[in-house]
Write a structure and sequence with these properties.
The protein is an all-alpha fold. Helices cover about 75% and strands about 0% of the residues. The protein contains 22 helices and four strands.
């Protein structure tokens, strides 16, 4: 026989069990953090082999949608049935999703699941369903076994683990993609598939340690699951995030589809508030919002989370396209940012554990982040890697405190009975900020590129003449050989049209006269109509001269196009960073308003003792 008091009190757990549990939770955190970073450098190869460039964003969006909306649900389930059980279930689903992602497309097109790219998107959503439990349950278990002042130190370790994963993830993903392709019994396993399989051994180790070595915690608090609230939460955020993802891409912002999705989200939000105000065990109790610490701290975390993922996602794009750094090395080039983040996270966590004063670090971090993003908004094609590294260190230092202290502050503002739902709700708002940031900054980048590319490269309008092919532009600067072939092919096509015009083809004459890309000198030499067609000998002579002139201009054209693309991407990305400064300013103002509370509350046993059968 044992009691709930013995199970729930962090004081009743031996130091050895605490250390084992902490190691297991750090592995869980590393597992989840690696999954967020390892995929970025593998994605170009994946969409190439699965023929799904148009679905590129959905590989990330499906995971984030599934994981984000389920965070508060897992938090509540952890309060009801114990965080250890929920974490074991979450790891199991996560590993299943990883293995399924690895076999995407191996068996061709499948009924219901579709082709390889659609399979990957569905399996990433399954992985996200499990991934939602990892961060929330891990942080909640730490809160179960350690008092706040000790917890601050370990939260710094969690932030450092995320920083380590952010450093090694992109480089590891690129290495596996390039060098891990193997042939087993005549079957070729592409290197990018190991990006997903690599999670499995680490996940199995964490699963065994949690299942067999971690004591039961917070078990036996029975209640009713708020199914209505869970469903409405999904309906609130899925249409909203999908609309942000599609806006300006698949549909115009004013289209009936997007307006309808925003309206559905708003109506569902009103229904969610109504249902939660009457639910016995609400997924997200509305009384959380009566706590000023919870509201202000999460507002700050939400805004900073938006900017954080914007920098993480788009800095590699800047380095690869604008500075010409390859994919694997761009992963290594993120090291200064993560070094700053780890330093800021660990130092702030340790300082708070010593003196209990958290607000100066949160406010100072937000201010340093504001300065860092301002410095990033001033980079360009001429920026050197060392210069960029120094700017990214500043950004990382500014991000560090928010990564380690936000959950600590919110946890300290609530009693143990609400610890799980408060922690999961905080993680939920941070992830929503990340997800909104992906959608918002992705849209800003697209809008900026739509304006910048035609301005820098009027000669690269799409073949239809109605818009601009951004994928061609990016591939051109990242694959100079392909760009040269495309330019040579364009010259050959133009010469063929000119030859037809000399022969009296009136359609070819009209096309050349209307094209802004054809030099005025060539237009003056064109026949006015079919009656003015040139003799065959004259055509042959003029075409020969043009071929020589065009051949001499290939190198110049390639260099000009590359420069234009780099400048266009640079302006688009730095303009996006400039816009994020206004968003970060709100985050800084929110951090100034965070209330100050004491962190000296110890983890106390439950007041009532109930017997539970062993």
């Amino acid at each position: 026989m044992f009691t709930l008091t013995e199970l729930e009190s962090g004081a009743s757990i031996s130091d050895k069990d605490k250390r084992t549990t902490l190691i297991a939770l750090l592995i869980v955190f590393l597992l989840a953090a690696l999954d967020m970073t390892i995929l970025s450098t593998a994605m170009p190869r994946i969409v190439s082999e699965l023929n799904g460039l148009e679905l590129y964003a959905w590989v990330t969006t499906s995971y984030m949608l599934a994981s984000t909306v389920l965070v508060p649900i897992y938090g509540k389930l952890g309060d009801l049935y114990g965080r250890k059980l929920i974490l074991v279930i979450g790891i199991s689903i996560f590993l299943l999703g990883s293995m399924l992602c690895g076999i995407s497309g191996e068996f061709g097109t499948l009924p219901i699941l579709g082709d390889g790219m659609h399979q990957l998107i569905i399996f990433r959503a399954i992985k996200g369903i499990g991934g939602a439990a990892l961060f929330t349950s891990a942080i909640g278990i730490i809160a179960d076994i350690y008092p706040p002042l000790q917890r601050a130190k370990f939260m710094g370790l969690f932030g450092a683990i995320f920083g380590i994963a952010s450093i090694i993830g992109p480089a590891l993903g690129g290495f596996l993609t390039d060098y891990a392709t193997v042939t087993i019994n005549g079957h070729v396993i592409a290197g990018w598939r190991w990006v997903f399989y690599a999670n499995v051994p680490l996940g199995i180790l964490a699963l065994c340690m949690i299942a067999f070595k971690t004591p039961r915690l917070n078990h036996g608090n029975r209640g009713v699951i708020d199914f209505a609230g869970a469903f409405l939460l999904l309906v609130v955020f899925i249409p909203f995030l999908l609309a942000l993802t599609w806006g300006g891409h698949q549909y115009a912002w004013s289209s009936p589809i997007l307006l309808g999705m925003f309206a559905l989200s708003f109506v569902s939000l009103l229904l969610f508030v109504f249902v939660e105000s009457r639910a016995q065990d609400a997924i997200m109790p509305l009384n959380l919002f009566r706590n000023r610490v919870f509201v202000i701290t999460n507002l700050s975390s939400f805004v900073i989370g938006m900017s954080f993922l914007g920098v993480i996602m788009f800095m590699p794009l800047f380095m690869q396209v604008v500075l010409g750094v390859n994919a694997t090395n761009s992963g290594f080039s993120m090291f200064p940012l993560m070094l700053g983040l780890m330093s800021g996270s660990i130092v702030s966590g340790r300082m708070v554990s010593r003196n209990g004063h958290y607000k100066p670090y949160l406010v100072g971090g937000a201010f340093v982040l504001l300065i860092g993003v301002f410095l990033l908004s001033r980079i360009g094609p001429e920026t050197g890697l060392l210069d960029l590294a120094l700017r990214m260190v500043v950004v990382g230092i500014g991000l560090g405190p928010s990564q380690s202290l936000v959950s600590l502050v919110v946890q300290s503002a609530f009693p143990m009975s609400q610890l799980g739902v408060a922690t999961s709700s905080t993680q939920f708002f941070r992830q929503i900020g990340n997800t909104v940031g992906v959608a918002l900054f992705g849209t800003l980048l697209t809008l900026n590129l739509t304006a910048e590319l035609p301005r820098q490269l009027p000669m690269m309008t799409s073949s239809t003449g109605q818009g601009f092919d951004m994928s061609q532009a990016q591939n051109g600067v990242m694959s100079p050989g392909a760009l040269r072939e495309r330019i040579e092919s364009s010259f050959d096509e133009m010469i063929t049209i000119i030859e037809h015009a000399y022969e009296g083809d009136e359609a070819a004459i009209a096309q050349l006269q209307q094209s802004p890309l054809v030099p005025a000198q060539i237009k003056e030499q064109l026949p006015r109509s079919a009656a003015d067609a040139l003799p065959a000998a004259a055509i042959e002579q003029r075409v020969g001269v043009m071929r020589g002139l065009f051949a001499a201009r290939v190198d110049q054209s390639v260099a000009s196009v590359e420069t234009g693309i780099r400048l266009a991407f640079s302006n688009a990305i730095t303009s996006m960073f400039s816009t994020s400064l206004f968003i970060l300013l709100f985050g800084f103002l929110f951090s100034l308003a965070i209330p100050v509370i004491s962190l000296n509350r110890e983890v106390k046993p439950a007041p009532e003792v109930a017997e539970v059968s062993a």
